[in-house]
Amino acid sequence: MTEPYPNIIKSELSRTVKKDGVTVEVSIIRLESRAEWKLEVINSAQTFIVWDDPFASDAEAFAEFERTVAKEGMRTFLDKGNDIPFRR
Fold first, then answer.
1. Would residue 47 count as lying in a domain?
2. Of 2, 6, 69, 85, whose CB is crowded by the most CB atoms within 10 A?
3. Residue 87 lies in a domain
4. Tens digits of per-residue pLDDT, 18-40?
């Protein structure tokens, strides 16, 4: 018998943020069976920026997003990442 996939809990603090002409989706999630929260930001190119370390609360995760915006600006999330296109 296989184990069912764990439920993913999405924080009510998850939201779309528009600022300085940049729009991102802030997603704060955790597994139902775990207490720690993960923070990821998805930009318009559908690139995911994911923090490595978990947060003790969803509020801490959102505060880290806000600190990043205050320190580096929204344009920091425009990076297209390390995607390598396939040859056609």
1. yes
2. 69
3. no
4. 999 999 999 999 999 999 999 99
